[in-house]
Design brief:
mainly beta; 4% helix; eleven-stranded mixed beta sheet; 38 strands; 459 residues; 2 domains; seven-stranded antiparallel beta sheet
Amino acid sequence: MLALRLERFGPPDMPEAVDMPVPVAGPGSALVHVAAGSVNLSDVKNVEGAMEGTVLPHMPGREFAGTVAEGPPEWVGAEVWSTSGGLEFTLDGSHAEAILLHADALARKPRPLSLRLGAAGMWLSSREYEKTYCIRRRRMSWNPCPEPTLGDRASADAVETLIVPRAVDLGEMTVRRALPSSKRQMVGPFIFFDQMGPAEFLTDQGIDVRPHPHINLATLTYLFEGEILHRDSLGTEKAIQPGAVNWMRAGRGIVHSERTADERKRRGQRLFGIQTWMALPAKEEESDPAFTHHGAEALPLIEDGGIRARLIAGRAFGTASPLATASETLYADVQLKAGASMPIDAGYDERAIYTINGTIKVGGDAFEPGQLLVLRPGDPLTVAAATDARFMLFGGAPMEGPRYIWWNFVSSRLERIEAAKEEWARGRFDTVPGDEAEFIPLPAKRDAPQRATGGVFYP
């Protein structure tokens, strides 16, 4: 029996606290409808087939609502967030204990609410107004990540998943593709992560990525060395240079090309950088396409002892990037001198490190260049540099559901990808001014789009 006590729950004329005794039996679940200041236990019924590990996504746009005041020690201080996801915590089989919530926001919600309990978790939602609350466990993530097991070192490692990128030949150069991977397809909104180079282009050489389409995503190209000429169907023409942010929101559809400018080809250049794609929240997928540029001088640069970090997106290191992203996003270029260390807090639901140069240590383990480290959610940690080192720190809030990826198309809807294929094949996308003569044709492959998820289980 779970005795859940919600303080200041419901409209002002309700009792100050409502006790809800709910039977919990194994992996099943129960529903309780709470309305008009009372709990009607006749509405309690068992629901078969609750899926182990099922959780509701932690959505962008959440607001802090309160904290857990009483309960098991590991829950005291847990944050309560108002989101469009759900109030969620993990139950241990049929075992559950009373929890007292201090959530002032609940007092302002006089509409009917439903409570679902099971071995997988709990959520509290207002179906009429589509408003819900999310509990995120203190020091642990709401993600379906198993608890550390006594005596099992791997279960307590700071690195949850280690990915070695695969080589992909693009013709002019070979890239290292870390995401999507068979081990993990997304980290926060990041669904595509390529390391370009370092590559040396001699005279009359360069990259020539012909015009091609994107939908329902945003791209971000970040360079360490070299330059790329970006053109798109909005009429944008911009030289992408080291340290700058170049964010292209595809939205309902955009076409762009990436080439080496003629002047650069004549003298040759080195090219080294990272290209990422980020999924857009479902409500933003069909937004207007846009291109945003912020020069390196506009991005926060943090220098402290042996630490030098440029914040590309999000909030970190006590500052914020000027880049407005579509969802909660973290992206930083971090350099450490040998012997220096930098703490990484647990403020973002999903976090990863991609090693660029040198050797770093995380949780006592050493990692060399060209490795993607998905960090265990909810745990603060420290990155130490065994040599001069550089890495990308990235992540953010996961999407509200899975994404599908096929060629250059990403969407939450399979039918949208099929429509984009048809549109590109029939020439219905806009052209790129100044680069209309060529385009990349639709691939002949007939494979199904890949389903992409991160640390959240979606049934």
